[in-house]
């Protein structure tokens, strides 16, 4: 599948790997793909994000992803649902961090052994890349670009889609601002 990726899409994947390595994550998640997209300039996805007003709000997006990471990757909707059942996620996080240290639920590198090579892709990140292929196919594009990764992130339930939606970036809004947008089947 990677042979169909444009240079911009490949750079997003490389950027996601770099974000995972910088944070000490044991694997590359969908949130790392979103962070790499936010870093891009001059690409179709960066155009769409800029047109939707997200270019000036990168720091709040990063902060929202960090809050979700501290919650063990739970979305705010999942946290609220658990609260409705009497489960206080912030309290659980506080207790775990009291015993195991700050960021204990953030999915950092486990074990004392040294790993060689790049961190592997999590199933969620693989789902996003598969969704990017579906988005490209739905739009009748021969190559998979970074805009297809953005579309897939907005279509797949989870923290990145929730954070993007909180900032006005949805599958529908992205398809409206991309050339040839409107009416495509969802890439999820």
From TrEMBL:
SUPFAM superfamilies to which the protein is assigned, alphabetical: Double Clp-N motif
InterPro entries (UniProt xref): Clp_N_dom_sf (IPR036628), Clp_R_N (IPR004176)
Residue span(s) of domain Clp R: 2-188
Keywords: Repeat
Domain of life: Bacteria
Region spans: Disordered: 103-124
Protein name: Peptidase
Source organism: Streptomyces toyocaensis
